[in-house]
Each structure stands twice: as structure tokens, then as C-alpha cells.
Amino acid sequence: MANYMIYMQDAWAYLRPALEIAILAFLIYKVLYYLRGTRGSNILAGILIMLMLLTAVCDLIKLEVLNWILAGVWTVLATAIIVIFQPELRRAFAQLGSASFLHSNRKKEAITEVVTAVLNMSKRRIGALIVIERSIGMRAIVEDSIKLDIKLNSLIIESIFFPNSPLHDGAIIIKNDKIIAAHSILPLSRDESLTRSLGTRHRAAVGITEESDAVVVVVSEETGKISIACRGSLRQDVKADKLLQYLTGLLISNDADSFSSMFGTMEENEQLTGFTSGEEGS
Q: What is the CATH architecture assignment of 101-272?
């Protein structure tokens, strides 16, 4: 037992520095990632570059007084960072305090924006194909699309799918609370029964859910009817009062019971995917 404890202590002595480096690297990465694109980040970069250059020059030519001054500047740099990044730090701590329910609230807000846009487009019979990414990413599709980084908003969704809009063809992809891609070309379902009964937009909705765990909302251009696809199943003619309930169950509850209650058994799914041939084009 004593030998085992000694072995564990020796192993920990080697692992501890690696763990410390990993923690520091993670913290530095998260701080830099959070501060990217802010005005303060440019200020901090300028200060660091200037201090490093001055320190190197003073060490090289042995300027003792300036070295002493710079040593003091480095010690007060932490206080300067707090002053420079005061707005960002305040926002970060506010987000940290609400982290327990922040993610759920963002999902609810995103669902509300999608539902609002879908209902408005359904009334005006504007075709739409909206993909909501979950745990399985769609990087390959995003790379071949028009990349965006837009805060999710119902008006933006409606403007993208407005007839004759440059981006109205194809799908949009939503991740968390942002639209990350538009004009996305999705794989079509390989199910031959769907090929005969569904149009391109609905087949694409089913196709992407056969390859990922995404949830897809479709608005028919000809009828204005709303459909939801998930896990290779398609529920059509979703009423307005059920749309929010279904999306909340799939995206927030995310359990088998919610899926079964919406899409039913395989036999029921075959009935749900019965669609008039040629109803929906590309």
C-alpha cells in the first residue's frame, strides 16, 4: 500500500505541471475568445506590444532606470486591464451569474423567432426551409453555403425567403441563436416512396434529418402548410397552435417521449408522409 501511495505521489508530481498548463491555456483561450472583436482588445494588444518591445530594448542596452519603471508597469497591468475592459467584465460576470438558465432562455427566444417567421410566411405562402442544428454539426454544408453570423430574428428570416431575394433558394441553418448559413443545398432523401410523393423542399428536409439530428421546419410555397422533419420522419400540416409546442419539445426537452408524441410509430409516420405528388418544388 505504501509503495502504491508513493507511486501515485510521483505520478501526480509529473501530471500537476501538465494540468496547470492545460488550465492556464484554457483560461487564456476563453478570455481571448470572449474579448475578440471588442474595442478593448485592440487597446490591450497595443499596450502589450509596446511594453514587450520596450522591455526587450531596455534589457538589450541595459537601461536600468527604464527597466525598473517597466517592472512596475507590468505589476499594475492587471489593474489597467480591469479599467480598460470594465464593460466586458461586467457583462461576463452578469452572464456567469445567470448561466444556469441562460442557455434555456436563449433557446426559447430562438424558437419564438422561428415560429413568428414561419407563421407569417405561411399566411403569405412564402416557401421556406429552416434547419435548426443540434449536437451533430453540419460543417460541410455550411462551407458550401453563404456563411452568415446574424443574430436570429424573425424579420431577417422573412427577408431571406422573400420571393426573388438573392438568398431565398435553399435552406438557412440556425445554430443556437444565430443564423450561420443561407442558400444551403441539403441532401435529398433516398427513400423512394418519398421521392414519388414529396417535392424537393420536403425531400431535402427529410434528407438532412436522415444524416443528422437537426430539426427542420418547412413552409410549402403552394399551400402555405407547415411541416416539421426530425430523425427521417416528417409531420405535415402542423397547425399554428402546435408549432411552438412541437419545436419546444424537440429542441429543449429533446427526449424520446417528445419525439414519439409528435411523430408517433413508424406506421403512423408512413401516413404522415403521404403528400400529394408534385405539391412542392425546389
A: 3-Layer(aba) Sandwich (3.40)
